[in-house]
Design a protein that fits this description.
The chain is built from four helices and three strands; from the N terminus they run αααβαββ. By secondary structure, the protein is α+β, with helices and mostly antiparallel strands. Strands 1-2-3 form a three-stranded mixed β-sheet.
Length: about 140
């Protein structure tokens, strides 16, 4: 049987190399990002509205924002400091900001959620008796 009869069942057409469709060349630098970075970016960021709701002690509109085991509800003094931090772009805390009656620091938790929603670093100063410490949390940027 002959070679390359186009249109005859059971036979394949052979096109010259130049006539075959080719995909556009891809530069060597366009390799896909690592899988852990793709999965990290798939985690949804909280919305600013959800962060405000958490700060008031309400449930977030979308599941997965906030956690029952992490305090988010701010008292009156923490809410005042939260509003100042939003205006300044950084927070000032007395000590570590931890409450004795609760585990963790609700103010830092809410500020970290806000920084995550805005894709910004979280910056705060801890005022101590003898020294002050400036802290930067890069995790809200999700740099991998």
């Amino acid at each position: 049987s002959g070679g390359g009869g186009a249109g005859i069942p059971g036979q394949h057409s052979i096109l010259p190399l130049a006539a075959q469709p080719q995909s556009p060349p891809t530069p060597a630098t366009s390799s896909p990002p690592p899988l852990h970075l793709l999965l990290y970016d798939m985690c949804a960021r909280p919305t600013l509205a959800d962060v405000e709701r958490l700060a008031r002690g309400l449930a977030a509109a979308r599941r997965g924002t906030g956690s029952r085991g992490v305090p988010h509800r701010l008292n009156a003094e923490e809410h005042r400091l939260y509003e100042l931090a939003k205006a300044r772009g950084y927070a000032v805390l007395k000590g570590s900001g931890h409450r004795r009656e609760r585990k963790g620091s609700p103010l830092l938790n809410v500020l970290r959620q806000r920084a995550d929603a805005l894709d910004e670093c979280l910056v705060w100063c801890q005022q101590g008796v003898l020294t002050d410490h400036c802290c930067v949390d890069f995790s809200p940027r999700r740099l991998g």
